[in-house]
Design goal:
By secondary structure, the chain is an alpha+beta fold. The chain has three domains: 4-89, Rossmann fold, CATH 3.40.50.20; 94-104 and 174-271, 2-Layer Sandwich (D-amino Acid Aminotransferase, Chain A, domain 1), CATH 3.30.470.20; 109-170. 32% of the residues lie in helices and 23% in strands. The chain contains nine helices and 13 strands. The chain has helices spanning 18-28, 63-76, 83-89, 94-100, 117-121, 149-161, 175-178, 222-239, 278-290; strands at residues 4-8, 33-37, 50-53, 78-80, 109-111, 128-132, 142-144, 166-170, 180-186, 189-196, 215-218, 245-252, 258-264. The chain has a five-stranded antiparallel sheet. The chain has a four-stranded parallel sheet with strand order 2-1-3-4, sandwiched between helices. It has a four-stranded antiparallel sheet with strand order 5-8-6-7. A hairpin with a 5-residue loop joins strand 12 and strand 13. The relative contact order is 0.17. Residues 95-291 form the ATP-grasp domain. One of its GO terms (molecular function) is metal ion binding. Keywords: ATP-binding, Nucleotide-binding.
Length: 291
């Protein structure tokens, strides 16, 4: 059994660009490592010194099963990130907590039952984005123009029917030109940043494990970095741990100031290809957790 098992999923085989870089970097650290499907009942996760959650991108439709798996693994070995962090982070209502802590978050209306949908959709006059609180890879997420409120309502009701609450956010026009900025943290320290093209600027997202994204290397501004650092510090206080990996996704608000759209602590792509030293930093952080 390898020193480190990387938790992935069958559908992600050959699709996670981070995985080969991480495996090579772990080998350079003197650690044996391999990947396995988190849902494979034949895997002896407890035989590894650590299990690192990575491309478990199919968890959303069976979140309860995924979290039960995480708890079992954690009872047998070191799980990174921990099960409690995964439980908290796989429901996007954590953004409500961030907003309550006065962190600038994309304005969000919440609908947890059908009677709340119309008010959520009426919150903003322009384009809105409808998404579930439990999702991965931007699945079940769509942008709707003002003339398409009926379609937006149908989408929201479909999400509710699946047992998930609904988030409604205004579409931020600056996204079309500026995109998102992702800040990656490894073992509590800023590692690198990347740019992501706007996902909802054109056609609706198609079916698949995840939405295809346009990713580029990017240097965060001082304002973006300060917000990311603030979020990570808050996460540490909220969860009681320093996550092995974290990704803070920022978008420009109407005034251009950064706002948090997501904090990824479960299975985020870290886009290690955008920074030559990132994989080595992640492997070193894993090694440090084992010492």
């Amino acid at each position: 059994m390898p020193d480190v098992l990387i938790a992935s999923c069958a559908a992600a085989a050959g699709k996670d660009e981070d995985e080969p870089l991480l495996l090579a970097a772990l080998a350079a650290e003197g650690l044996t490592a391999s990947s396995a499907d988190w849902a494979d009942a034949d895997v002896d996760w407890g035989a590894a010194a650590a299990v690192v959650v990575r491309s478990t991108w199919d968890y959303a439709p069976r979140r309860d099963e995924f979290l039960a798996w995480a708890r079992r693994v954690e009872s047998a070995t070191r799980l990174l990130n921990p099960a409690g962090v995964l439980t908290w982070n796989t429901d996007k209502r954590y953004l409500r907590e961030l907003a309550d802590a006065a962190v600038p978050v994309v304005p969000t209306a919440w609908a947890e039952q059908p009677g709340e949908v119309d008010a959520a959709l009426a919150r903003w006059p322009g384009d809105v984005v409808v998404k579930p609180v439990v999702s991965a890879g931007a699945r079940d997420t769509a942008r709707f123009a003002p003339a398409a409120r009926a379609e937006a309502r149908a989408a929201a009701e479909g999400i509710l029917a699946s047992g998930r609450a609904v988030m409604v956010q205004p579409y931020l026009d600056r996204l079309d030109a500026e995109g998102e900025t992702g800040l990656v943290y490894l073992d509590g320290a800023a590692s690198h940043a990347f740019g992501k093209g706007a996902l909802l600027a054109g056609e609706a997202l198609g079916p698949g494990l995840y939405a295809e994204e346009e990713i580029t290397a990017r240097t965060a501004t001082a304002e973006q970095q300060a917000l990311g650092d603030r979020v990570l510090a808050w996460v540490g206080e909220r969860t009681g741990t320093v996550p092995l990996y974290a990704r803070v996704d920022l978008v420009p608000g109407e005034d251009g100031a950064p706002q948090v759209i997501e904090v990824e602590l479960t299975e985020p792509s870290l886009f290690l290809t955008t920074d030559d030293g990132a994989a080595a930093r992640l492997a070193a952080a894993v090694r440090a957790r084992l010492s």
